[in-house]
């Protein structure tokens, strides 16, 4: 049994069948994404953070390819924007749904992410953050909103938004992805 199915346990059946299949067997998705940045200081800060996350700088659209796979212990995500900007993450399950979380590691950043499941999809909710191994209080960090779901007509629909309290939107990207054979 793969990490996602094991972690969700009986809650796995609440996910859309195509989302379950993707996490059971892995796969690759691709498609255009829309990129937004805040204005002023928020936009400047957002561009710096986005660049470190592999989002192409100075663009309002990009092509995204995501490879998703897991084994019994780890979920792997490999995101590539425009065949040039790369971001890899590993997710290690802790506990079980609905009270457990995932530890996402991307470079020097590690996040503890809870999952809220609704309408066959899920949304991530940040519980804790570490930078270079040091715990960072959530109150001083940007708020990340991220989710995914399957739309029968439009494929894998996702959104990622990063906001800083008092400043607003730093950056966001979202899109609808399909398996490569479906995009040709």
Description:
With 184 residues, the chain is an alpha+beta fold. The chain has one domain (3-183): Beta Barrel (Lipocalin). Helices cover 17% and strands 53% of the residues. It is built from 4 helices and 11 strands; from the N terminus they run H-H-E-H-E-E-E-E-E-E-E-E-E-E-H. It has helices spanning 3-8, 17-25, 40-52, 180-183; strands at residues 27-37, 61-70, 75-81, 85-94, 101-106, 109-118, 121-131, 134-136, 143-151, 155-164, 168-177. Strands 1-2-3-4-5-6-7-9-10-11 form a 10-stranded antiparallel β-barrel. The longest helix has 13 residues, at 40-52. The chain is globular, with a radius of gyration of 16 Å.
Summarize the structure.
With 184 residues, this protein is α+β, with helices and mostly antiparallel strands. It is built from 4 helices and 11 strands, in the order ααβαββββββββββα.
Number of domains: 1
Strand content: over 45%
Shape: globular
Unreliably modeled segments:
none
Secondary-structure element string: HHEHEEEEEEEEEEH
Q: Helix segment count?
A: 4
As laid out across the biggest beta sheet, the strand order is 1-2-3-4-5-6-7-9-10-11
The first-level CATH class is given as Mainly Beta
State the CATH architecture: Beta Barrel
Mean pLDDT: 92
- Structural category: alpha+beta
Report how far apart the termini are: 32 Å
**What is the CATH superfamily classification?**
Calycin beta-barrel core domain
* Major sheet: 10 strands, antiparallel, barrel
| CATH domain topology | Lipocalin
Percentage of residues assigned to helices: 10-25%
Radius of gyration: 16 Å
């Amino acid at each position: 049994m793969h990490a996602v199915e094991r972690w969700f346990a009986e809650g796995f059946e609440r996910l859309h069948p195509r989302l379950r299949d993707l996490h059971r067997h892995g796969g690759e998705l691709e498609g255009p994404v829309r990129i937004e940045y805040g204005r002023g200081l928020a936009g400047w800060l957002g561009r710096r953070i986005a660049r470190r996350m592999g989002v192409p700088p100075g663009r309002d659209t990009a092509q995204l390819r995501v490879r998703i796979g897991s084994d019994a212990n780890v979920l792997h995500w490999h995101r590539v924007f425009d065949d040039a900007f790369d971001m890899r993450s590993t997710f290690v399950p802790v506990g079980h749904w609905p009270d457990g979380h995932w530890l996402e590691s991307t470079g020097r950043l590690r996040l503890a992410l809870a999952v809220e499941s609704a309408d066959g999809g899920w949304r991530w909710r940040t519980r804790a953050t570490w930078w270079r191994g040091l715990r960072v209080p959530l109150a001083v960090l940007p708020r990340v909103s991220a989710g995914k779901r399957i739309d029968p007509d439009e494929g894998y629909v996702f959104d990622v938004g990063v906001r800083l309290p008092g400043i607003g939107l730093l950056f966001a990207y979202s899109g609808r992805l399909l398996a490569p054979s479906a995009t040709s």
